Amino acid sequence: MSTNPLLHFSGLPQFNEIKPEHVSPAIDRLISEGRALVEQLATSQEEPTWENYALKLEDHSEKLGRAWSQIGHMNAVVNSPALREAYNDNLQKLTDFGSDLSQDERLYEKFKAIQTGSEFSKLTVTQQTIINHEVRDFKLGGAELKADEKVRFKAILEQLSKLSSKFEENIMDNTNDFTHNVETVEELAGLPDDAIEAAADAAKATGKSGYQFSLHFPSYLPVMQYAENRTLRETLYRAYSTRASELSKPEWNNTDLISNILKLKKEEANMLGFNNFAELSLATKMADTPAQVIAFLDTLAQRAKPYAERDIQELTAYAKTLGLDNMQAWDVSFVSEKLRQDKYAFSDQEVKQYFPEEKVLAGLFKVTETIFGVSVQKAETPLWHEDAAFYVIKDKANQPIAYFYLDLYARQNKRGGAWMDTCITRRKTANGIALPVAFLTCNFSAPVGNKPALFTHDEVTTMFHEFGHGLHHMLTQVDEYGVSGISGVEWDAVELPSQFMENFCWEWEVLRIMTSHVDTGEPLPRALFDKMIAAKNFQAGMQMVRQIEFSLFDMRLHGDFDPNGNLTALDIIEQVRDEVAVLRPPKWNRFPNSFSHIFAGGYAAGYYSYKWAEVLSADAYSLFEELGVLSEEAGSRFKSEVLAKGGSRPAMESFVAFRGREPSMDALLRHSGMGD
Length: 676
Ligand SMILES: [Zn+2]
Fold this sequence. Notes:
Layout: H1 20-43, H2 50-77, H3 81-102, H4 105-116, H5 125-140, H6 147-177, E1 179-182, H7 193-205, E2 211-214, H8 217-226, H9 230-241, H10 255-271, H11 277-282, H12 290-321, H13 329-344, H14 348-352, H15 357-372, E3 375-379, E4 389-394, E5 400-409, E6 419-424, E7 427-429, E8 432-434, E9 437-444, H16 457-474, H17 496-502, H18 508-514, H19 526-536, H20 540-558, H21 569-580, H22 596-599, H23 609-627, H24 632-643, H25 651-659, H26 666-671
Helix pairs in contact: 1-2, 1-3, 3-6, 4-5, 6-10, 8-13, 12-20, 15-18, 16-17, 17-23, 20-21, 23-24, 24-25
């Protein structure tokens, strides 16, 4: 038996044993097993069936997916030069293998034979869906291309995978590299104590005196929101918003990567018979055409823009009262925070004192337990870092049904942001059901001094969001790998369960059990909650318009934009801003250069999904508003019709089965204070 921990497929991953030197041998072996299997299946004379053909491929991709998810996860949360190198080398090999597989006509023919054969009608709906997806994906993977075209197509995919990876690395390197030191505490007026303490610790850790700030969010954001020192805000804002551009270090400049990525994506789409990448992207999504998406965004923009204009007028007028006659981009968060405090008389900082980590987790688990009829408990397993933790989800009979890892705090060499990723996917095997396992990763502030970690309400909402993705993965009842959990779910429906979960962070019934003041132990006072609710839709118009701006930029860029023409991506975002934006960032802002969602994160021509799914999630939540916030009836219907079904049927069918009708935009607009 192999001593390589990445090749152990029974039980949970051995994160304490995985080393960079295990990566290549494991991936090499799995790829060579995969190639042998493909040859054996492709040349077999037997009539292809689910059992003798499709299932064998499923088995192999499960193994490869499982090993690679452990590597990808460690690369993201405990990055090191050796691991990064191993990751990149093997990413290349995997891309090669994946594109060989997806272009193998022999495999394609066998899937088509199953789809049109006599066995098909006897397969389960889940198995049929997998076969249908395979045939579709083979077409999109280039299976119908001519031999010489296939060579070019493969080269495009390889190149894209490299460029995306480089795009993300440039941002990470630039973010890690930047530090800004301040000598005296007087220059930090307005900053909360914990932010000052963290900055002092950061300076000490690098052997410096004074205070050190970085572009990592827990360091950056408090400065933007609270620092009276305008120059300090400007310095950090400028560094943050020019990351990975020609205005930063040349070796991290993403500008050429952007145009190369766009050119290659257009070529890829054209080869498959689409006019542009946007059309290709929508071929596997819930939305049908780019025009439909743009019309959807335009409708929302029309509804939101008057509210956004009102927001910006209020903000500009308020800035004047603070002596900021000419409000700049680096003043916006600062003025907003002051305006919010003035209007609603509370600060994020005040609210944060009521959200110690332990209480928040207990609250999240309580909601989950009540509506979905499960229990969540801490458990033991090897981990990659002392900050990480592990949990088990059990059903009513106290039997484990899923597990998840939680890694909450920001640290060096950990990718920014918050996300859920799959570790093991639920499926039926010869040895019984393999239980699903999820990774939940955040970048919240770590505990400072001897106090527990305290989360802002925003961070709490983020945690509920990621946990919603986790539940989609973990509460699935699907038996087959390809459409189990979030697998096979349309991109623009993936955010339904996550955004749905956020709603609970705004319910008194939930907050009164989820809060406890770090010093006094008192729950959140009702009066403060009422202010939070009043403040909930503060600047909702501005925020919605901003999301629409990013979504339209993404759709245009991958739709009608000509990457060989004279316009640049920066020109396109300016055009979009002419139409919808109420707030213009400075000319030197290089937002596209760090827009990794669409250039490195798989959201290309898919960023609109956030708003699209928000319509679904708000409308789904409205059933809980009707039946009761912690309604078990609504919860069990959501579990069985949406979460349990995963990708085994179209998201629209799941939605209608749950809600009893098609989705409507009304609940989202009402929740955002734009109901009239
Ligand atoms: Zn999400």
